[in-house]
Amino acid sequence: MGVTAVLMLPLLLLGISGLLFIYQEVSRLWSKSVVQNKVVVITDAISGLGKECARVFHTGGARLVLCGKNWERLEILYDALTSVADPSKTFTPKLVLLDLSDISCVQDVAKEVLDCYGCVDILINNASMKIKGPAHKISLELDKKIMDANYFGPITLTKALLPDMISRRTGQIVLVNNIQGKLGIPFRTAYAASKHAALGFFDCLRAEVGEYDVVVSTVSPTFMQSYHIDPGQGNWEASIWKFFFRKLAYGVHPVDVAEEVMRTVRRKKQEVFMANPIPKAAVYIRTFFPEFFFAVVACGVKEKLSVPEEG
């Protein structure tokens, strides 16, 4: 009996691996069929995440409209996509120059986006601007610029494209947000405020447009990793706060987020929170034990201010 069990274990593991492989392949093919021929608009397509989203949706056969504020970098992305794609299975992406921090031009650009294919099936609001520093040292002008890029820009574009979705009674809007739409981190007041505002807007919008079969989804990862991350080791790892903060700051890779955005579109998920256990725990602690959370955060700020920065 013991020998039989030992012999069966490798076969069981092999069977499970085979089932997982089949599931992944079916999911991948299903994802492609869901977005095939769909008009997908991606803002800030020249960012790390924007490029990965463009790659995933382009491979899936979507009709892409790629938006960005640098034409040269948009053309580089265009060449990268078309050089490896099968022309018989993919559509040539269309490029649109868009700077969401310039609210005055968003309405005109939205019309240009609609003119590309006559409609929009999926809007991926990916653009974001970051700033870090003590609140009293960040100018009000910079606060306003952050709000324009992270809040007013995305909602202006969304409002301009939404009537088309409502009239056709179909469509999906995806907001790529951040953990700081859930909780605030010190020295990121303007950024956290803009992310809270954006999340609140799209949560309300979800309830408003559900009757028109328009899906609103939010994907909130922790901080986005660079493609090559090499965190240095130092004495500051010693404290609990610093360990917590580093775990919070490591974040997720753009490739993983892009694949999650595709899954969110395929399954029409309403909300996704991408994080390792430490940030997830922080969100729950902030909700149920706010005084403890604030104490830990305040302790971390005192330690950070007491350690001189190198260079």
From TrEMBL:
GO terms for biological process: intracellular calcium ion homeostasis. PROSITE patterns: ADH_SHORT (PS00061). Keywords: NAD, NADP, Oxidoreductase, Signal. GO terms for molecular function: oxidoreductase activity, acting on the CH-OH group of donors, NAD or NADP as acceptor. GO terms for cellular component: cytoplasm; membrane. CDD domains: 11beta-HSD1_like_SDR_c. Belongs to the short-chain dehydrogenases/reductases (SDR) family. This is Dehydrogenase/reductase SDR family member 7C. It comes from Odobenus rosmarus divergens.
